[in-house]
C-alpha cells in the first residue's frame, strides 16, 4: 500500500457567524472571524489516496487524473468564492475549516476509482490546518 | 548601511471591480477576482528598513518596535477585514496588491524614526507579490 | 473525527551532554551538540488535537483556545530559555528533541478538554523533527 | 514510542515510459513525463524511524547515524543520476515516485538497527509526494 | 514605480559538460553535474516587472497576462525537456542556471508591453539561484 | 552581470546584553533576548556574488567553490557555537544579526576571487533577517 498526495489551492472569503446568536456571543466565540463583511484565506488543499502501484506504470493512480478530479469538483467550485454566500453545500453548514474538509472528502470520495481516498488536509493559514480521514 | 526586514501577516477579503464598467468588462479584465461576493487571501507583509547599527545594541532599529508599528498601524487595521468595505484609505482606491502596498508605505513612513523605510513587500499568494520602494 | 493542528514556535539554547561521561565520549556521541557553551535552535511546535465538530461553530476546539494553551504552558516557559539551565522539567532530563516533545505532550494533555490531544511534533531544524502520540 | 524524521535530498533525471507500448499510448498515459530525452526533479526524501528514547542520550537513534545511512545507501546512489539508465534496482522497475519510494524502504530497512523504519516519504515536486510504510 | 513578481515553474533534465574538454577535466570542474546520462531539477522561475499602477485597475500589468506570457514562451518550451538536447537556444549554450536565466530574460523582454521587465530569478535547488537584471 | 546566491546555515546560541547597563535597562531594551543563560537560533545564511558568466562553463563562479568558502570560513567557525563566548570577532561586538552579517561580509570578501561579493543576508527567524551590501 502506497500513499500519494497531491496539493492544490483555492482562495475564498468566509466568515464564522451563528445567525441565531447575539452579535456579542458571535464576537466572544469567533472574534475577528465574525466580521460581518467577511475576511478570506489562501486555502491549501492536500488530497491523499492509497493503493498498490500498477506493475506497468508504477502508479497507484495517475496524478494528472487526481489533479483533474480535485480541480473539477473542488477548486472550480470554491475558488474565488464566498463560502457563506456562493456555495450550495447541500445542507446548512458553518464554513469552518473542519466542515469544509469533511465536505471536500464527501465530494471527492465518489470520484476516486481503483484506489481509495485516504485523507483530506485543508490548510487555512501557515499555522492552522485540519485533516479528515472519512470517519 | 544594513537592511532589516520584519515579516507580519493579515487575512482579508476583497474584490477587484470598477463600478462604472459593465459586468462584462469587469469579468474580462479581473476574471474570478471580480466575484461580487468577494474572495480573500492570507497576505504576507515584509517591511524593510535601513540604517547603521547602534554601537551598543547592534540594532539599526529594535525589531520589537518595528513589529509593534506594523501591527498597530497596518495589521490591526486590515486583519480580518473587507478591503472594499471596511477600510477608509483616505481616497478612492481599487484594493489591488499594488495599491495596498503603496498605502502601507505611506502609512508606515511617518512612524519610522531614526532609520529609513526602504521597502514594503506585500504577498497575495505564493505566486504573486509586489514591492514598493517609495517612489 | 477531525484532526486540527496549530503551529507555534520558540527559540532556545541547549546542549546534549552526559555529566558522568568523559568529554571524549560526549564528543563521540553528541559531536558539535556537546559544545559546553551551548548552541540553539528555532523550534517549530505543531500540536494536533482530534474530535468531532460542534454543530454550531463547526469547531472541534476553538483554535484561539488551543493557541492560548500552547503559549501559556509551553512557549512562555521555553521561549528564549536555556533548556539545560532554566527549566524545571520535574525530573532529570537530557533536552533532546525526543524528550522535550514527550514533556510537551505530558504538560499539554491535562489542559486539553472536550477533545483529545493527538500528536506533538517538534521540529529542531528544517531537516530534523520528532513526533509523539502519547504512548 | 517516538517518531524521528530526517530530511535529505537528491537531484535526478528520469522518464516514465513502457517500451512495449506504442509512443501514442505512452503519451496518453504519461504525457510530458514520457519525453524520450528525460526530464528531472529535485527529490526531497524524508525517512522516519520509531523507537523509545535512550535514558542517557534521549535519542531513539543518533540522527547523525540516520543521516549517514541515508546518504551512503540512497543519496550517493541516486544523486545526479538518470533513474532509467544509471541504477541497478535489482529488478525491472518503472522509476515512478511510488516505485522509487518502495525501493528506498527495502534498501534502508536492513541498515536501521535498534529502532524501526516507519515511513519513507519521497517528494517529487512541491505538489506531489508519496509515502510508504513497508506493507 | 511598483515591482510585481509572478512565480512559475518547470521540471527539466540537463548536464554541464564541455565536449572539447577531457572527461577528467569535466569531472574536475562540474563534478556530479557532468554525469553523461543527465540529472534534473525542479526549476522555480520568478519574473519581476515594474511600472506605475493604472488608476482604474490598480495594476501595473494584469498578472494573468504576465503568467500567460511566461507559460507560453518559457514553461511550454522548457518544461519536461532536456536542456542539452531538446531546446534551440539560438546559439551554442552551456545550460547553466546563469545562461538559462539570461535566455529567459531575452525571450521575455520582447513580450512585456506597457511596463518593463525588471528581473528574472531562476532557482535550481533550495540552495542555489541566480538573478539577471538585463545588463 | 548575473547574481548567484548560495544558501547555507548554522545553529548557534547568543544573548543580547550590555555589561555596563543595569539588568533593568537590558531587559527594557532587549527583552527576552537578554536572558543571561542565552537562547539560540537556526541561522540561514544567503551569500550573493555577481559577475559575468564564463563562456565555457556558464558560471560566474563555481557554486561548489562558493559553498566551500562559506563553510570553511563561516559555518565551521560559527556552527553549534555560543556567539558571545566562543568567537573571536577581532573586536568587541554585540552579536546582533546586523553585526554578525557585517562580520560575515568582511570575512568572506577577501576569499571571493574573479567575481564580486554582492550581498550577505542573515536570517535569524522566519520573520526577521538583515542584508548587508558592504557599505
Structural commentary:
- Six copies of one chain form a homohexamer.
- Chain A has 135 residues and is α+β, with helices and mostly antiparallel strands.
- Chain A has a single domain, classed as 6-pyruvoyl tetrahydropterin synthase/QueD (Tetrahydropterin Synthase, Chain A, 2-Layer Sandwich), CATH 3.30.479.
- Chain A is built from three helices and five strands.
- The longest helix of chain A has 16 residues, at 63-78.
- The radius of gyration of chain A is 17 Å and the shape is elongated.
- Chain A starts with a strand and ends with a strand.
- Chains in contact: A-B, A-C, A-D, B-E, B-F, C-D, C-F, D-E, E-F.
List the helices and strands and how they pair.
The structure is a homohexamer of 135-residue chains.
Chain A: E1 2-14, H1 23-30, E2 39-51, H2 63-78, E3 81-82, H3 97-109, E4 116-125, E5 128-132
Parallel strand pairs in A: 1-3
Antiparallel strand pairs in A: 1-2, 2-4, 4-5
Features:
homohexamer; 135 residues; alpha+beta; 3 helices
Number of strands of chain A: 5
What is the CATH superfamily label of chain A? 6-pyruvoyl tetrahydropterin synthase/QueD
Shape of chain A: elongated
Read across the widest sheet of chain A, the strand sequence of neighbours is: 3-1-2-4-5
Largest sheet of chain A: 5 strands, mixed
Structural class of chain A comes to alpha+beta
Radius of gyration of chain A: 17 Å
Question: What's the domain count of chain A?
Answer: 1
Task: Count interface residues per chain for the largest interface.
Answer: A-B, 22 and 22 residues
Amino acid at each position: 500500500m502506497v500513499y500519494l498526495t497531491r496539493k492544490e489551492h483555492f482562495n475564498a472569503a468566509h466568515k464564522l457567524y451563528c445567525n441565531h446568536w447575539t452579535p456579542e456571543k458571535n464576537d466572544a466565540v469567533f472574534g475577528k472571524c465574525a466580521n460581518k463583511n467577511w475576511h478570506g484565506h489562501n486555502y491549501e488543499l492536500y488530497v491523499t489516496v492509497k493503493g498498490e502501484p500498477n506493475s506497468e506504470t508504477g502508479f497507484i493512480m495517475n496524478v494528472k487524473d487526481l489533479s483533474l478530479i480535485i480541480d473539477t469538483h473542488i477548486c472550480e467550485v470554491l475558488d474565488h468564492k464566498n463560502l457563506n454566500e456562493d456555495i450550495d453545500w447541500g445542507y446548512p453548514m458553518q464554513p469552518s475549516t473542519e466542515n469544509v474538509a469533511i465536505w471536500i472528502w464527501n465530494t471527492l470520495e465518489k470520484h476516486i476509482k481503483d484506489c481509495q481516498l485516504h485523507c483530506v488536509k485543508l490548510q487555512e493559514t501557515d499555522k492552522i490546518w485540519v485533516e479528515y480521514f472519512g470517519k
